[in-house]
Amino acid sequence: MRYDNERLCLFSQIALRLNQGACIAMGIALTAATLLMFMQVMTRYLLGIAHTWVEELVRYSGMTAAVLGLSPLTRTDAYIRVDLFYDRIKRSRLSRILIDAFVGFCLIVLLVEGWNLVEFGMRSRTPGLRIPFGYVYTTIPLGAFLGLVQLVDGWIRHPERWRRGAPR
Questions:
Q1: Could you tell me if 122 and 43 are in contact, meaning their C-beta atoms sit under 8 angstroms apart?
Q2: CB within 8 A of 112, min separation 6: which ones?
Q3: pTM of the shown model
Q4: Where are the alpha helices (DSSP H) in 43-138?
Q5: What pLDDT digit, counting tens, does each position of 92-106 carry?
């Protein structure tokens, strides 16, 4: 997606850069997971060597990509909703407010509970890599924070969604 950066306020420009960073990080995580898994398969079948840390790192890379995906999904308003009900509501102002409030609530819960998980995870280490689980869990509150930034930015960039009778 391209946006006219000169027309965006400072918060929206920062949100755009954070979203681009999240997309790049997701691409790196998925590429790393793919390459590591390919390397693991090749070394196992050609050399008979299997590394336990590779499977663990691939799992954490996938989790990182999934959680950082909250940013672009929230920015593009592409989160999951039941279309059967959503289309019948006719996208009224009240439904838009309720949906955004629910998404915001879920992101705040994910942020707070994710941070608690990070603190709890610092007490134990991963079996293969021997790093604290808290480092792995850091992506959960980070993804929730990025999602919240994109949600607020959507309110700033699209004030017409709050006007009575405006489609969205």
A1: no
A2: 141
A3: 0.84
A4: 52-68, 70-75, 83-88, 93-121, 133-137
A5: 777 788 888 999 999
